[in-house]
Structure formats: structure tokens, C-alpha cells
Design brief:
It is a single chain. The protein is of the alpha+beta class. The chain has a single domain, classed as Immunoglobulin-like. Helix content is 15%, strand content 54%. The chain contains one helix and eight strands, in the order αββββββββ. Strands 1, 2, 3, 4, 5, 6, 7 and 8 form an eight-stranded mixed beta sheet that branches.
Amino acid sequence: MRVRLALAAGALLAATATAAHAAPVSADSLSVDAYGTVAADGTVTLSGTYSCLDDSAGPVFVSSTLVQADRSIGIGGTRAVCDGQVHDWSNSGVVKEPAYKAGAARVKATLLQLTPSGPLGVPTPGFLALEESDVILG
């Protein structure tokens, strides 16, 4: 009997965790995964999750900047889907000389909306969410 209760409790926890990831959210949000990668060719990949509610005013992007020691560089950009759901993001970029190394670093990620403004409709950035996190590059 205890085994069945333990299995049922485990299944309930797993279903709850899955539902929480897929559940709609009530605000724009952004997170950064604790680990990123650096490939032999200098390609850096960073990732995390985001959610946003409305992109009707203009396109929304997830941008990321990698900081290690005294170096800082933008790593890719991902177009966001603003449907109130939690989505994964992943940005990659090739960084040559001097290359980033495995170890501690910091990521600054931004959920950014470009909104046309003025008579020419020039896009201006609006920040929906910001996140700074320590990461380990491997």
C-alpha cells in the first residue's frame, strides 16, 4: 500500500511540475540557465526561459550579453512568442580572439520590444524584463 501511495505522490508531483511550466503567466518574465557552453570553435551558447503577454505593439526579442573578466559581448538574439506561456530561449554566437573560457561568467539577458515611433516609424526599444545571473561555462 505504501509503495502505491509513494508512486501516486511521485506522479502527482511530476504532473504538477509539467503543468507549472506550461501554465499561462500574468506578467512578462525572463530567466537564465545556470550553465552555458563554449565549443572548441569559440561558439558560446546561453539559454533560459521567458514569457511575455503581448507583442501587438511590435516584435519582442530575447537578447543576451556574456561578461567574463573584463570582456563583454552580445550573444545572439531570439524572436519571442508572446502568448502568455513559458518558452525556452537559446542564443549562440561565435567569439574568436580572445575567446571565452570554461568557468565562471555572468549573463545579462533582456526581453526587449521594438515599438515603431515618430513619423517615420523608427523602432525604439522597450524593456519588458531584465535578468542578470551568474553562470558556469563548460
